[in-house]
Every structure is written in structure tokens, then in C-alpha cells.
Design goal:
Blueprint: H1 8-11, H2 16-38, H3 43-54, H4 56-67, H5 72-82, H6 95-113, H7 117-129
Helix pairs in contact: 2-3, 2-5, 2-6, 4-6, 5-6
């Protein structure tokens, strides 16, 4: 399957939860790449560090960082993701955290469909800039 970019109009036809489904994978891959680049360690340690960076609590904090960096269209996608219905909340997160985490994933999925890889990395770098991962690994 060819990675064909979508227009904003086409990307907006997907539900926020569908965008979050894709964005979860995009974000997870970015975290894995980030951890691998900063530390060559056993896979079990990499996995433990990854779990801390992809959990709803951490992504909810990332929401606050991203909110200030987004243009009007990106912010609209973030809010669509936050307001999406149908989320079942896992035991380890509260509803607000989980909805904000879904919003982050929705944004990353949306940007991926648009082919805006550079923007994805820019936003991800902003999220990680305020994080001391070395304490966790």
C-alpha cells in the first residue's frame, strides 16, 4: 500500500477515534525510536520506559504542551479528539486524562494522514523537551 497523503478535507472525514487508532501507533513508534536513540539497553528496560511515555497520564500532560504550539486547524483536531465519545476508560487513568490522551493520538494520526512528518517530529520533540527520561532508564 502506497503512503499517499490525504487532503485536510479527506482527513477530516475520519472519526476522531479512528484518527486516534492510527495516532496511537504513530506516537508509540516515535517513543520507541526516541528511547532506542538515547539508550542502548535491554529490551525489558526499553519497554518499561516506553510504558511510562505512552500512558494516558503522560499523554494528558503532553496535551497541555501541545495546546500552546498548535495552529487553529491542529487545535480543532485536538479538541475533536478530546470530545470524542465512545471512550472506555482504563482502570489506571481517569476520564479527563484518557480523553486528553485520545486527543493527542488523534492529532498525531491526523498529521500522519496529511503526510506532515516534519510537524509530527517537531511536536513530539516539544513533548519530550520537558521530560527527563534518563531518570526512568
Amino acid at each position: 500500500m502506497e503512503n499517499e497523503k490525504l487532503t485536510e478535507r479527506e482527513a477530516n472525514t475520519y472519526s476522531p477515534l479512528s484518527l486516534a487508532f492510527l495516532g496511537d501507533s504513530v506516537y508509540d513508534t516515535l517513543v520507541r525510536e526516541y528511547l532506542l536513540r538515547i539508550a542502548n539497553m535491554p529490551v525489558a528496560k526499553l519497554h518499561s520506559a516506553k510504558v511510562k511515555l505512552v500512558c494516558a497520564e503522560f499523554q494528558s500532560e503532553a496535551y497541555s504542551t501541545l495546546e500552546e504550539l498548535l495552529d487553529e486547524r491542529e487545535l480543532a483536531v485536538l479538541k475533536r479528539g478530546r470530545n470524542a465519545t465512545g471512550n472506555t476508560v482504563p482502570k489506571h487513568a481517569d476520564a479527563v486524562e484518557y480523553r486528553r490522551a485520545t486527543a493527542v493520538e488523534c492529532l498525531f494520526g491526523y498529521l500522519f494522514l496529511l503526510g506532515r512528518t516534519e510537524r509530527i517530529y517537531q511536536l513530539f520533540d516539544s513533548i519530550m523537551a520537558g521530560t527527563d527520561v534518563s531518570a526512568d532508564i
